[in-house]
Amino acid sequence: MNTSVKLGTALITGASSGIGAAYADRLARRGYDLVLVARNQARLDQLADRLAKETGRQIRTLAADLNHSEGVHKVEALIRDDQTLTMLVNNAGIGSAAPLLQADVDVMESMITLNITALTRLTYAAAPAFVARGAGTIINISSAVAIAPEILNGVYGATKAYVLALSQSLKHELADKGLRVQAVLPGAIRTEFWDVAGTPVDSLPAEMVMSVDDLVDAALAGLDQGEFATIPSLPSVDGWNAYEAARVALVPHLSLSKPGARYNVQ
What we know:
Elements: E1 9-13, H1 18-30, E2 33-38, H2 41-55, E3 59-63, H3 69-81, E4 85-90, H4 105-133, E5 136-141, H5 154-174, E6 179-184, E7 188-189, H6 193-197, E8 209-210, H7 212-224, E9 229-230, H8 237-250
Parallel strand pairs: 1-2, 1-4, 2-3, 4-5, 5-6, 6-9, 7-8
Helix pairs in contact: 1-2, 1-7, 3-4, 4-5
């Protein structure tokens, strides 16, 4: 146990289980104090007690439901006011595997509220605070469906595409102001996500499903290596670089005064 390293405080949403709990474990062992945010106070306390004993870090908890404005406002206030905060991990989210014609639109709206609205508000609280302090890191947990929305529920894919797009914009606008941004795009991960989404994880091919520990270890390795977008199962960064190069190549042609020649518009 090394308590001499001080990297500031990391706030993690959805921290009581799964990916968020794994981030809490790894970041505490790296030398971060933590603020753990989730709905379940009992789970938060159990995790905080264990990590405090094992790492010697200061672990605080904040029970908040990010599907409701009251919970979001509590976390926003903490982010703005806590001068020790150096990292935000936007992990809280829900998913769905239901086809559009079988999906409940109220559930879709709730997913948008958590995956997009809450994440946006917390990001808007953190980014100015980090810029004012001259440094800070925002890790946004997106998904592989951000670039392959046909795989699962379309609204879920759209929410994760939003997370990726917001992260790209943050990097473009604020990287030179001391803000570090990483988007993590996991594939299928063995978590409670699949129970909520309505597709048992054991129904998926085993070779598709990564453990939470491997995901978070790979994501943090990507952060250490300076990656903006980390797709943990991608064999080489060349795949992402090719995808991004193709996207960037389109940009000069997205808004011109004349239609493309293939439309034969005189």
